[in-house]
Inverse folding.
């Protein structure tokens, strides 16, 4: 058993007869009244996100997990297929278990969190950023750069990302996976 002081991003806990992963938390100590921890929890079974507040010092039921590196192979609709990099075994996960499936390209190495009690995959952690090629974007208009102007661009995975006006088709860009935002252009 853990307490609210052990809460951190990525911790998996048992709550309301389900397993949730903590995606955001904030320890709050108001001037009046007891301290508490405000959390945002994502269900690993159905992907639903709920907000919850725990009083400080409350016991929480944490789930023991293991992490393994898997390579993303392909998807057929809602089912995504991954291969373990150590023993080459394959597993399938539903789209709801993935945070940003639209930014994952074939061959991408991800970290899968597995419940060590029953060997069930709980969630997939993407790398902090991915490098993707722009497949379609409108040409930028000269003189339209007085402010931080952006335009939509479609990348090789089919996702749409807002990019600066100087990005053209065929450019490779680095995209932050947590927010799905443009970071920088990659030069070859």
């Amino acid at each position: 058993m853990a307490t609210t002081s052990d809460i951190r991003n990525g911790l998996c806990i048992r709550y309301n007869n389900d397993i949730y992963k903590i995606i955001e938390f904030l320890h709050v100590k108001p001037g009046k009244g007891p301290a508490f921890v405000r959390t945002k929890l994502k269900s690993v079974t159905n992907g639903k996100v709920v907000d919850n507040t725990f009083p400080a010092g409350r016991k929480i039921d944490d789930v023991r997990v293991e992490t393994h590196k898997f390579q993303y192979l392909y998807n057929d609709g809602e089912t995504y297929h991954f291969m373990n990099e150590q023993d080459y075994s394959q597993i399938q996960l539903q789209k709801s278990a993935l945070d940003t499936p639209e930014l994952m390209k074939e061959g991408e190495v991800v970290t899968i969190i597995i419940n060590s009690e029953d060997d069930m995959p709980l969630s997939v952690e993407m790398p902090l950023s991915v490098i993707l090629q722009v497949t379609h974007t409108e040409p930028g208009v000269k003189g339209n750069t007085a402010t931080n102007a952006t335009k939509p661009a479609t990348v090789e995975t089919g996702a749409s990302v807002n990019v600066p006006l100087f990005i053209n088709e065929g450019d490779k860009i680095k995209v932050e996976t947590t927010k799905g935002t443009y970071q920088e252009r990659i030069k070859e």
Summary: The chain has three domains: 2-62, 65-125, 129-186. The chain has no helices and 16 strands.
